[in-house]
Amino acid sequence: MEGGSGGDSQRFGKMVVESKFRRKRRRGGTTMILASTTDTEGMMDQEEEEEEEDDQLADVLEDRKHQPADVLEDRKHRDGSIYRGTDYWSIYYRIADTNENYMDCLRNCVFNRGRDKPFIVNLSDPFILLSGPKRGIGMETPALLEYDIRIKRGDGEDDDLQLINGAATISETELPPPYAQAYTRRIAGDYGSVNISLALLHNAIEATMHIQITEVRGSGGFDMSMACRVGQIPDEIKLFESVAIAKPCQLNKRFVLAIVKRGILVLDLKVKRSDASEEEEPVCMLRGLKAKAHGQVILPMIFDCATILVERHLDDGDFVLFNRQPSLHKMYIMGHRIKIMPYSTFHLNLSATSPYNAVFDGDKMNMHVPQPFDGDEMNMH
Question: What residue spans carry the region label Disordered (predicted)?
Fold first, then answer.
């Protein structure tokens, strides 16, 4: 699935897949999926009839709460039909007169899982945890959301059931004010439906979070979970759950979050020793980060069993240092203001290569990112 997505209104950052062959009922804000039954004799007593009416009423209320998404008709993700035609969205995104390579740069995978590593959805917890985009992008309205979700049934791809496949648009005109809250939209398919939650934040900035475990004390390791709350959205965003840590390392996960300027990002980190009993509660720590444009934040979180660093990565307008190797005899190190681009490389304008004496015949260029605030301040001057 490609595009932007969130989760349920109570569990922002997840996606629920509900089977169409089952009846659903809401109790206390939790989705319960019940197996459907058939009355073989065609007779029901009064109690069963009342229960059936309650189920129908619950379905009606559920449908009103989760309004359908603005799905593009006769468009499929797999056959490339979303890039053809003269619809307003095709003209807006200039899809008709751009090549596929250009569109690939604008794409941002929320999650991408193949048949070899499918999600296992349990009836007791029918949610898929989304770790967030791979990189930050300019998500402005209207946004185009592409999706392709299938249910694995056998060894071959032909045996799979197509849940949903297509594209939908997300626009601020569809969201009633205030925007700073989670809204749920439903995408219906042949064998089920998918609920997607989203929120539109005005005057916001992006922050890429990276988690690093610098020290592990004791033996046996620990389990770690992290969630956060962003500004005016009361719903908790789950970043990851039950990650086992045995030695110092960097988590192979980066999370792109949006924070309203002058707002507060509240981090909720939970740590529990691996050898602890089930009755033992995890140790919780709440820390707040204030949004700062083009700033860098390194937040240490110290527990009895470990020391954890939460870092905010590069953003547009940050400063870095470049140098040539070997340096030879010309000016070999300078500071540059950067612009974040897709892919894992950097581009340097030809007009800035002369001081480095770099002629691109095998010369090596190194990029250095100042970590402390004083280093960043010296780079600016």
Answer: 1-57
Q: What is the DSSP string of 232-284?
A: T--S-EEEEEEEEE-SSEEEEEEEEEEEETT-EEEEEEEEEETTS-TTSPPEE
Residues paired with 215 in a beta bridge = 307
**CATH code for residues 204-303:** 2.60.40
- C-alpha distances in angstroms, 346 versus 109, 330, 339? 21, 22, 10
The Cα 364–Cα 323 span in angstroms is 9
For the chain, the structural domain boundaries read 14-198, 204-303, 319-380
Residue type, 316: D
β-strand pairing of 264-273 with 161-170 = unpaired
C-beta of residue 237 within 8 angstroms of C-beta of residue 227: yes
Specify the pTM. Answer: 0.52
Low-confidence stretches of the chain (pLDDT < 50) are 1-48, 57, 60-61, 63-64, 86, 96-102, 105, 136, 373
Residue 92 has a pLDDT of 57
pLDDT at 39: 25
Give the amino acid at 208.
Answer: T
- 202 φ/ψ angles, rounded to the nearest 5 degrees: -90, 145
Four-point Cα dihedral 372, 209, 342, 340, nearest 10: -40
Taking the CA of residue 186 as centre, how many other CA atoms within 13 Å lie in the half-sphere pointing to its CB?
Answer: 13
Burial 277-301 (b: 16+ CB within 10 A, else e): eeeeeeeeeeeebebeeebbeebeb
What pLDDT score does 144 carry? 73
Quick one: pLDDT at residue 355? 73
Determine the Cα–Cα distance for residues 366 and 234; give it in Å rounded to an integer: 43
Kindly report each contact of residues 24-31 with a partner whose C-beta sits within 8 Å and lies 24 or more positions away, as own/partner. 24/58, 24/59, 24/62, 25/55, 25/58, 26/58, 26/61, 26/62, 31/126
